[in-house]
Batch of 3 targets.
Target 1
Amino acid sequence: MLLANYNLTSIVNFPTRTTHGSCTAIDNFFINVSQNYSIKPLVNGISDHDAQLLVLNNIIRPTQKLATFYIRDYNDYSIHEFLVRLSMESWDEVFAGNNTNIIFNKFLDTYLKIFNTCFKKKKTFTPHIHITLG
C-alpha cells in the first residue's frame, strides 16, 4: 500500500539467487510504474547471485553547462599585502566618534576597501548540471 501511494511497484519477477535447488528474489527494484522500462536477469556464472539489468527508456537526462562564478584570489602575497595595508591604516577617524553605528560603518568601509583591493575577484567557469528531457 505504501509503495502504491507513491506510484511505485516491484519489477523483479524472476529469481536472483539460486542455490541447492532453491530460488529467491533477494534483490529488487522499485520504480514509478509510469516509466517505460525493461528488466532481465544478467547471469554472470561467478556466484549464486545474479545481477539484474534495468533499461529505462525516455528518461530525464542531466546535461552539463558552464556557469560563471566569481572567486577571490587568495595567495601568500595578497594575504601579506592585506596585513601590511591594515597595519598602515590610520584608524584615528574610526575611533574618534562616540556613536557605535558610525564607528562601525567607518571601520567596515575602510576594511572593505583594503580587502577588495588585496583580494581581487576572478571569473571562473564551473560545470553546472541542468535537467533536460532526453
Target 2
Amino acid sequence: MIVIDASALVKYILREQGWEKVERYLLEKRPLYSVDHLLKEVCNAMWKYKVERETVIELYRALNRLIDADVIVLESELSYLKVALEIALKYKVTVYNALYVAQAINRGGLLTCDRKQADVALALGVKVHLV
C-alpha cells in the first residue's frame, strides 16, 4: 500500500510538470492512503498559488471525488502524531511531512515529490516513489 503526500497530490491537482506520473499511481495503485491533513495542505496550496476562486471550487470538488470514490483513503492524523513528532525531532522535518512518513511506515510506501521527505522515509525503511 502507498501513502500519497500533499506534494504529489498538489502536482496532480494543479497539473504541474510531471502530474501524469501521479495520475498513473491514482489509476493503477488505488487505493492510495493519506492522513486527513492532506485536504488542508492541498487547499492551502491552491490558495498559495492564487488559483482563481471558481477554479479552486472545481478542484476541491475533484479532490472530494477522489476521496468519495476511495481512490484516496484518509486516516486520522491523530493515529500517527506521536510517531510523526519523534520523526520530526530526529530528522529535523516538519510534523506535517513526518505525518506522511509515519503513515508510510505502517502502510509500506510513500509517493512524494519532496526529496528531503523521501530521504527520511528511506532512512526509516520505507519504499519511496519519488515523482
Target 3
Amino acid sequence: MKRETIIAGAVFALIPIAVVSLAVLCTWAIAHGSSPMWRLPFKVLCHGIPHRCLTIWNTPMPICARCTAIYIGLFVGLFGFFIAPWMHERVARWTMFIGAMPMAVDGFTQLLRLRESTNSLRLATGAAAGVTFGYWILSAIERRDQRRVAPS
C-alpha cells in the first residue's frame, strides 16, 4: 500500500470521527442543560430534523440517522480498505453507485412524499453508502498513479 493512501486514509478518517464525536458531545451537553442552540452549527452538515435523528440521553442528536450512518460507514469503509485492499478501483466505483442507490431511492421517495422512511431504514441505507464510498475513495487514490503511466 502506498504512503499517500495511508496518509489520505488517516486524514479522511478524522472527518467522521470528528463529526460523530462532536454530535454525541453536543447531544450530551444539551441533555445536561446546555442550550439547544448548540445544534445550529450542524445545520451545515445535515437538516437535523429531530424525529429523523437518533436519540441518546432522551435527546435527539444534531445530525439525522442517515448522516450518522454515512459518517460511521465512511470510517468503516476506510478501515475496510486497509484490511482488504484487493478490489480494483472500477469495481469499487460501481459498488459505491450500487451501495448509494437504496439511499437515493429512500430519500427521493420520502422527498416526493410517497412514504415516510424509518430511522432503521435510514441507518441501513446510509451505512451502505458510507461504507462503499469510504472503500472507493482509498481505492481510487491507491490506483491513481497506475492509470497515469502510459505504456512504452
